[in-house]
Amino acid sequence: MADFPNFCVPLEPPPVIGKSPRRQPHRGTQTEAIMDELAYSINRTAKVLGVGRTTIYKLIKSGQVDTLKIGSRTLITTESITRLAQTRREV
């Protein structure tokens, strides 16, 4: 490789024979991805908003997000997540 100038060096390693790359499903924009589901778990909501679970529980207790209770599972509606994000953006 010392005989070739830098611009001739390949940037990516060659593909591995016998393995095809995994295809990712088209998810659209992040907003579209959020609207695909009606409700998120506590953990997923925290991840989407970039906050901790404790913050999510505080938002639930203060009534800033709407929840659905299915069995022992607490879910947060995507509508209330979107509403919360919009009100925070305006502040």
TrEMBL record:
InterPro entries: HTH_17 (IPR041657), SinI_DNA-bd (IPR010093)
Pfam families in the cross-refs: HTH_17
Residue ranges annotated for the Helix-turn-helix domain, each copy included: 40-88
Protein name stated in the entry: Helix-turn-helix domain-containing protein
Organism for this UniProt entry: Blastomonas aquatica
Taxonomic classification: Bacteria, Pseudomonadati, Pseudomonadota, Alphaproteobacteria, Sphingomonadales
